[in-house]
Write a structure and sequence with these properties.
This protein has two domains: 100 residues, Pseudouridine synthase (2-Layer Sandwich), CATH 3.30.2350; 76 residues, Roll (Archaeosine Trna-guanine Transglycosylase, Chain: A, domain 4), CATH 2.30.130. It is extended. Strand 2 and strand 3 form a beta hairpin. The protein has 214 residues and is α+β, with helices and mostly antiparallel strands.
Length: 214
């Protein structure tokens, strides 16, 4: 048990590991699992993967129950295989349960069985689109600006309000996302301020499919 804990603890941090052959990552426009199924030799790409907060919950003769955090795009299968190799017995991922994604937790979810028994449960589980991307700044616009955005135009007044975001993007050398909400608080658009570039509309969310009047 102590050896397992030590090896698992040593697998915290950043690692440059090969992507699993049975994954959806692409090489030359073809998914890796397609190479794997056809047994076509291919050099696997190396990817930076980050792991932290590794906790061993239980160990028996054939399996280890582990909880950990990982960065976006990391492969837990690779981590399990590496742990098995370091223990000298080999290893693979038997079962995976994702507990959190960003600010969202499994405890917030509702099962399909619960929905079948009570359709009102959806109201408790539904998260408004305006609550997504909680780390992004949100700005509200008036009806006239909303109409322009829904037609693919960035209103001048809104652009002026977001000059500070463009300056910050230039300062840190990375893009900054902004959520645009209607006067009622509904998400209508996502904008991105990129270093040294004009504001760009990434998405427009039109809840009413009808035409937008001027």
């Amino acid at each position: 048990m102590d050896q397992i804990r030590q090896q698992a603890s040593d697998l915290k941090g950043d690692f440059d590991w090969p992507v699993p052959i049975f994954s959806a990552a692409k090489i030359n426009g073809k998914k890796l699992y397609e190479y794997g199924r056809s047994e076509t030799p291919i050099e696997l790409p190396i990817k930076r993967m980050s792991f932290s907060d590794v906790t061993i919950h239980a160990v028996d003769q054939t399996s280890i129950d582990v909880e950990l955090r990982c960065s976006k795009g990391s492969f837990v299968r690779t981590w399990c295989s590496e742990l098995g190799d370091r223990l000298g017995v080999g290893g693979h991922l038997e079962e995976l349960c994702r507990l959190t994604v960003g600010p969202y937790s499994l405890t917030q979810s509702v099962t399909l069985d619960a929905l079948e028994r009570d359709s009102t449960a959806m109201g408790e589980a539904f998260i408004p689109m305006s609550k997504t991307l909680p780390d992004w700044r949100a700005v509200r616009v008036a009806a006239k600006e909303e109409r322009l955005l829904l037609n693919g135009q960035i209103p001048r007044d809104l652009a002026n309000r977001l000059i500070v975001d463009q300056k910050e993007a230039l300062r840190i050398g990375a893009p900054i996302g902004v959520k645009v909400l209607s006067g009622e608080g509904a998400l209508i658009s996502i904008l991105v301020a990129e270093p040294g570039r004009p504001l760009k509309i990434r998405r427009v969310f039109r809840l009413d499919p009808g035409p937008i009047s001027q």
